[in-house]
Structures are given as C-alpha cells and as structure tokens.
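README: folding subset

This subset contains proteins for which both the sequence and a predicted structure token string are available. Records are stored as plain text. Below is the entry for Rhodanese-related sulfurtransferase (165 residues), shown exactly as it appears on disk.
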Amino acid sequence: MKQFLIYCFILIGVSSHAQADLDKLLARYNSQTVPYISVEELKMQSKDTNLVILDAREPKEFKVSHIKSAVYAGFSQFSVTIISHLINDKSRPVVVYCSLGIRSETISEKLKKEGYSNVSNLYGGIFEWKNKGYSVYNEFDEPTERVHVFAKRWAKYLKNGEKIF
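--- output ---
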C-alpha cells in the first residue's frame, strides 16, 4: 500500500509539472482573447451535432491524425470565407484546435473578428487530447497512435502516442 501511495504522489507530481509547463507555454504565446475549453469538456460536448470542431493545423498534420469529426480549417491557408460556407450561423458553437493551442488562438481570433460569437480554443490542442487517452483518426478515418508534432521543439509536450515529424 505504501508503494502504491508513493507511486500516486510521483504520478501526480509529474502530471502537475507537465501541466505547469503547458500553462507557461500558452501564457507565453497566447493573449487568451479566446476562452479555452478543456479536452474533457470537448469530449463531453463532442456528441452535440451542432458543435463544429475545426483543425487549425497544416494538411500533413491533419492527414496523420485529427480528432473525430474535425473539419480541416488549416493555418497558413486559412480562409474565413470558406469557413463561412460551412458555418453560416455565427452563434453556433465552434472549438478550434492545433497541436498545443497556439495557432488555434490565432484562427479563433479571426473567427471572432468576423462575428462568430461562440468560439473556444482547445487547451493543449490535439497533444493534450491524445495525452488524456482520447482517440485520434488518420486520413482514412481509422484510429491511430500517430500524431504529427509539427516541430521537434514541441514534441516534448506529446506524452502519449507515436510522434511523427
């Protein structure tokens, strides 16, 4: 029992350290002009057919893996015009994600500037989604362990899954 408790304290310590690192990273790069949604909240809401999940990564990242039912929005080629054809009700709930939540804030801000009023940024992005044990899917809609990490410096934030560069 004592060993089990020690293991639990170590696990909690490592987990809270990783969370603190992510908190610092997002505080450094994001202005937090868009509210975050946790992966747990998104998982609970993902069955809502009115919810739109947008993937704000590059095409090669999306092909490797994405959250089920996510729509590719892109980052460098993002177009509000294209998204407006998909989401014509600007009050519809939209969750935007990327690898960690940095690029998705930029895309979320663009949506807000265009009048979308119910936009959230996925805290920790697809990395946090996968780290929590939730499934991701490849371009053929098959479950996969692979996650594109965008760049080597971000790879350390993916703790669960196969890192693809």
